[in-house]
Amino acid sequence: MKLIVGLGNPGGKYKNTRHNAGFLVVDELEKLNLPNMVLFKPQKFMNRSGAEVKKWLKKWKGRTLPDLYVVHDDLDIPLGKFKIQFGKGPKVHNGLSSIYEQLGTKDFWHIRIGIDGDRDGKSGEDFVLENWRPEEREVINLTIINIINFIKTI
To answer: What's the domain range around 139?
Structure first.
């Protein structure tokens, strides 16, 4: 059994922002009803998602962290690319920092969705909270398909 956690911010205001890339993947996975997977979107703001993940893992007594996959946006990776890595995430990500703090480790799978693109001089914090531009959304939709194809194999 795998726990797939998609990171994002709850509420309509954030639904179409780059920071909610993890939510988008989980939304698509929900449509597939894949066996041996539990899907979870924390309903606290990004910087408090660690406590929610910790609660879920407590329900999973006897499971190991390699059963945990956290799907998240990543400014260190170009738009349209993704990486799957164990124990390695971006330099800065408040959602992951919260999870690391709550779990006391980085030893789980990171599915890192590249969102870096033309920031127009904006800070990373401002950029991730903006809505996708239409041309970016087309690219990210294809990226999500590729991520889902990987997830089907785990």
So the answer is: 2-151
